[in-house]
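INPUT
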Amino acid sequence: MTSTSERAEAFVSNRLPDDYFGASVVGPRHRAEGKPNEDSWLGARGAFGTLVVVSDGMGSRREARRGAQLACRAVLDAVRSWHKAGARDLDELLVRIEPVWCSLIAPSTARDCAATCLFALAHAHGQVHVAAIGDGLALLRTRRGLEWIVGPRSGGFANETAALGHSASWTSRSFPRAGGEVVVLATDGVADDLLPERIDGFVQWLMDDFAGMAPSQRWRALQRELRDWPTPHHTDDKTLVVLTQREAVLA
Amino acid sequence: MGWAKYLEDIVSRRNATSRVQAEIKQVAERRAPSKAAPKKTGDKAMSKLKEFTASSARPLPVLLLADVSGSMSTNGKIDALNDAVQEMLESFGGEDDSRAEIHVSVVTFGKDGAKVHQPLAPAAKVQWTRMTAAGGTPMGAAFDAATGMIEDRAQIPSRAYRPTIILVSDGQPTDEWQVPLKRLLGAERASKAARFAMGIGDDADEAMLSAFLATPEARVYRAHEARQIKQFFRWVTMSVTQRSRSANPDSVIAAEPTDLDDFNF
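OUTPUT
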């Protein structure tokens, strides 16, 4: 027979939603040019579970900012329809995203709106899906350790990336949800300056110093960190999003 | 009695509910202790972010492949090359409006084969040692050295901007160069480098230098006098510094002079 305390533990566990937080700031280059932030991010909860998306509009493109914003919305729309349709496998979701994005950006072209797209979905059916087109950072921390889905750059140089609408293929992974997972997503403005060998400490710092804060305070604190980015001569817009999952407890 | 039982039931229900509520509150507080007492963070002086991020700007590597064969010792060519490289290093080192840190390496090819005369380092920190000219023109070995350096992520990290390779020669290669050049042009990273080439004197192999550039719109610059060597390097310096100051240092800005003499420095 379970004790009152165990029942309370289960009660809380089953009602605490997955948490997410993030922030995005315009980089020094765009600020100097009087341009807006071309990164975008979104967090949403629903019957499908919890979703976070980050997108980086490709700087040289005319409607990069709009492309990034609509990439986030396209993932949310695709996740909703995929979940309603039974959410059989991740590939089925991934093939929905690009057509939705193309319809949202119309009449603009994919070339003008090119944007990266990284998302993490803590699905209501008990899996964590992480997928990405383009550069940046997507990593999952479980009790077993860190799992890189995107980054650090395996080849090439800074500012080289794939994007939505350019026949790029998705990099994706699905994990069974064991509880306590942390997913970190970031655009290349953050990812390229992080030291890969210190990434574990970076995730722990986010959890220790930010995860427990009240949302508005947390957003301000994270914005401040991104704005005061310590790498000299950094230029890019910066976006960082964290999805944390509650521990699974059996009642 | 029914009435007493009813009251007892109410009391016991209330007690049970209160107890459960208290337990829930305790568990919730344990789960999110900092919500009750949020940690102070975001204080610039206290930020730990520095521990997890690169402490230097993104490098913009410039790699010079310099011919130091015996023929370069004639007509003051090697002296002009040394002066031009020194001037270039001073210009790069003095750049303080840069979005990238310009790193320079010099690979020479001559009597001792291809060797790294100046390892890749920030231009501002380079103590220039003048090159001396003797021996043949083992350019193929220099191509392999360049490919090795650019493909090595420990030397040129992936956060670096696209490198620039400058090839300067006054003669024909004396070793097998076609396969090493093919390796350079086919390598994952080295193939993406911006390339400049200068032929010094009439003996320079223009066809080979064009093959190195590998793009129809790029052209080989010819220098017939020592001052033109300096002019070429001033032009390359300007192209690289413009890149390092530009919004996107990966875009190669090269104001194409039709003739180096027409280009007013």
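end of record. The longest helix of chain B spans residues 2-31.
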